[in-house]
């Protein structure tokens, strides 16, 4: 069975429910790593782009400008988090990350999510 969706969040929810495995971008993998999924590095590079799309012929509102500034400022933090996340993946002997449940107990998860940095 093959299930297709354009939403990385939907893919992660299906993987968490045990439907299968998936390849997602590193931002999504980082977001879902502690929510019941095992993350493993993918062996080939799969580039991805994060974009902010605005109307061409309409001025941006103050809220849109503030949001855009927040995204640009937050890029450095995300970049650092992704770098640290990749190092953790490389250092772990089984090439996976241990999940943590609500009680703070670390354990291996039974589903997998793959990505490449």
Automatic annotation (TrEMBL):
It comes from Escherichia coli. Residues 3-73 form the LysR substrate-binding domain. Gene3D superfamilies: Periplasmic binding protein-like II. GO terms for molecular function: sequence-specific DNA binding. One of its GO terms (biological process) is lysine biosynthetic process via diaminopimelate. This is LysR family transcriptional regulator. InterPro entries: LysR_subst-bd.
